[in-house]
Amino acid sequence: MLNTSPAFNLKVVLKETGIAADTLRAWERRYGLPMPQRTEGGHRLYSERDIEIIRWLMTQQESGLSISRAVDRYNELLASGSDPLAGSRPASGFAPQNLSAVTNLDGLRDEWLNACLAYNEPQAEQIFNHAFAMHPVETVIAQLIQRGLHQIGELWYSGKVSVQQEHFASGLAMRRLEALIAASPSPTRRETIVLACPPNEWHTISLAMLHLFLRRRGFNAVYLGANVPITRFEETAKVTRANLIVLTSQTLVGAASLQKTAFALSNKKMTIAFGGRIFNLQPEIARHIAGHFLGTDMAEAINEIENMLGGTVKKTRAASTPKDHLAAHDFFTSKRAEIEQTVRTAIKPTVTLNEEIQTGIHFLGDNVAAALQLGDLNYVSDEMTWIKHLLRAHKRPSDELVSFMNAYAKAVDKHINGSGKPILAWLEREIKKIETT
Hints:
Layout: H1 10-17, H2 21-31, E1 37-38, E2 44-45, H3 48-62, H4 67-79, H5 105-117, H6 121-134, H7 137-157, H8 163-182, E3 192-196, H9 205-216, E4 220-225, H10 230-240, E5 244-248, H11 252-266, E6 272-275, H12 277-281, E7 292-293, H13 298-309, H14 323-347, H15 355-374, H16 384-392, H17 398-416, H18 421-435
Parallel strand pairs: 3-4, 3-5, 5-6, 6-7
Antiparallel strand pairs: 1-2
Helix pairs in contact: 3-4, 5-6, 5-7, 7-8, 8-9, 11-15, 14-15, 14-17, 15-16, 17-18
């Protein structure tokens, strides 16, 4: 089987095939064949299969076909389930050069993580190049980038790495994804998919990965990025004639924003799909979204999108939020400023109101409001680890966390009284858990 990993530069390809550089660039620009990847510096990288595609097209020309007809024939054979290159073998001795000893993705991921944590950009980029030279693009994205960023996220969440290290790794990953997206061929399918994060959702790595995979499948994927206002979706959908809008959220707050966005767009008769980290952690949240859940991993998401565009997925109906939670949400959001100021005043004698504590107060308020909107305060429990980390960042004892939670409960009771029962019940459960651990 021909290797699809990008490993050979333009000079090697020209030598192996005999094609003129200008001719090859024209084929890529006009017909999308072959489909080389690009390095960070914008240089083309070809796979063994790319080289054999060039040879196949040149052979078709020698037999009398125009290049446009040869490309059409290649695509027709693929569409019929036949591989035009079946039986082709790469030239002997064709292999990437100057690669390190590690070839398995687990080992490469470990090396990449270590390079990122040491802020060693050249080494991290070299590991990327090595991985893409040895493995298919989709595999590297899933096994090295996605899993690697998940590991760094967990380390940051538990306080073992800094936010700077997490941002450094995410920045390198996003830059590589953008380069791969830019190198993707022009769309070959008529369906248009709009990809975006809803308001207040800033995490775009998963969305960028999905963008890349859809582009490589031939879809016309329109990427809008982070924090897209609800009012902009309808405008974009009309201009692009979108067949599907895909939304992603990684956080509980983002999921609440996604819920509002999906509801508004579904009322405009738009087809909505969604996914992201938070729905894997809290599967029940998906029941409250007016759209199609894309599943727990990227491969499943791609298959679900294919099925949706094929018309084989049934419409779903979002579950309703309990009335007491909706009432508590309205009271909490209207009195939130007063509640948080009361908390600050109450904890000031025992807890230093530094930036971390202020962040914790704001973070908790955001998540309580989101969970009330989504119908279950227990959704906040998984987010409490981060607040606990903030309070214990400088070896704070657990009784300070209990004091913080008790102060929050008293503030809620003071400002929204009986309408805050769902919040008070959840706080009471959390306090008991803290005291027994």
